[in-house]
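Holo model, 5-amino-5-deoxy-1-O-phosphono-D-mannitol. Inputs:
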Amino acid sequence: MCGIIGYIGKKRATPILMEGLKKMEYRGYDSSGLAVIERDGIKCTKKEGKIENLEKELPTMDLDGVVGIAHTRWATHGEPSDEHAHPHWGCKKDLFLVHNGIIENYPQLKEQLIKEGHKIKTKTDTEILAHLIEKYYEDEDVKLEQAVQKALQNVKGTYGIAVITSDEPNKIVVARMGSPLVLGIISDGEYLIASDVTAILKHTRNVMYLEDGEMATVTDEGMEVVTLDNKPVEKKTEKVDWEIAQAEKKGYPHFMLKEIMEQPEVVLNAIRGRMMEEEGLAHLGGFIEQKGRLAKINSITIVACGTAYYAGMVGEYMIEEYAGIPVDVEYASEFRYKKPVIDENTAVIVITQSGETADTLAALREAKRKGALTLGIVNVVGSTIAREVDAGAYSHAGPEIGVASTKAFMSQLAILALVTMFLGRQRNMSLVMGQRILEELKEMPKKIEKVLKQNDEIKRLAKKYYKSPSFFFMGRKYNFPIALEGALKLKEISYIHAEGYGSGEMKHGPIALIDDKFPSFFLAPQDSVYEKVISNMEEIKARKGKIIAVATQGDKAIEKIADDVIYIPKTIEMLSPMLTVVPMQLFAYHVAVLLKRDVDQPRNLAKSVTVE
Ligand code: M6R
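Output:
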């Protein structure tokens, strides 16, 4: 999704901006552009397609300026094109703007601006904002930050913006409403602004997060933060503790493979310091602060999108079985528009890797309005959702760059197991059961490692099946969400049609598709529904369907039904998704590589979905 980077200081801005744009490529984009303040005015260039296209323009432009803004765009209004890429400018071409988010009332604003004589050239909502600021900036006594403030008072929608003008060449004005912005402090007089902390990590770890309704004026003499109605805001500097190396590929051909391989360590990081083995308790700081309220809740609603939603579904099985609390799992995009039956006795658990997903954020705000206790399982530290929930637990998966979520999902499962224990031990879960879950959770990194060692075998399976036009993924109970996740992984990075089902649902329709060319993945660990899943496999076999099974080590019987088997170590049922998901991720990865897809940045997708 769109990315913003801006620099002000003493160095040439262009290389810093270009480097920042590249760090944000993983978010997904369709065009990019930059504007730099030069001695003779602002120079701007923008190009559809990859950042290399923009890079090719630079040598002819001779950019030396020390103040600039840049952007990667993911089209919402107007098709991807050079013209629609950001920055955008007003009539006089001396005020430039980059924008993330959507200006909802732009048609009305556009009509008004046209009546007032503004010449609008593109179909974008962003250009309207540039003209609107220009309109308020026409008055000679008005400074850029005041014009921005006035313009934003007329705007409905979401934005993270950065604005520059050649009239005040030593200034960047930024503002935020519903779209993240972070200010990076390199030294006194040298600052970065970005929509994504990854873009600035190389230069500084000292950051300030802007909140919704805040704006900042950044000059080479310092920064001033105020609210949009001009009240001063005291901000604290925070330290980001991610390693840059964590955000790089470490020699793997793709971020996705690196992230899959990191999963044993990810689980260790998620559970470290959070297990009280003797007492059979989970030590989750944020949850402990809310333990009084948590002891009283009588229902839980989990809201999330995509992969995080499937983690929530696993959480539903865990919490209902071990803590005895009814759980509802809702797509955040649906939850925000329905009339959710929740109150102060409901805990709403929000699961998100990025912490910025627009639908999830809106659902969280709705839950807060209804008085529910809101809890977050969030990966990105300092993200909007992390800051807005009542309490939460960070996933500690480190930066996830591949658009397809893998290690964040794994960490979400580990945290959900701990949350289950926390809630269960407040209720009827026995000490022995608590200890047993922790013991098994501790073993999980080694067990995941064993699954990862079968990478070559899974690659061989990918070679055997990658030409199939469709796949089914099936499982039951804890592994039903993993079937859904397996199908999502395959379709999003390989573009092969794949569907996930609870395998009991097969005979209610989908089985009509099965013939000798249609392969199905079955998640069939030896658990409480094993026999049922085997029966479902037989039904597919009887129709000559090809079967790839994920089974428990030592289950030789399954080889008689399945065409191919991948084995996982034995574990307790509630934690089995942490093992069964790994072959799903690796299979999708290898198929996508064989099909020469853009694994880390699949077409049409963005890492962080910050628009509705
Ligand atoms: O950042 P979030 O966890 O809130 O993102 C939610 C989904 O957009 C995300 O999981 C998406 O489905 C991934 N592409 C799945 O791999």
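The CA atoms of residues 207 and 467 lie 47 Å apart. The pocket of 5-amino-5-deoxy-1-O-phosphono-D-mannitol is lined by residues 305-308, 352-354, 357, 360, 403-405, 492, 605, 608-609 (CB under 6 Å).
Archived with the compound record.
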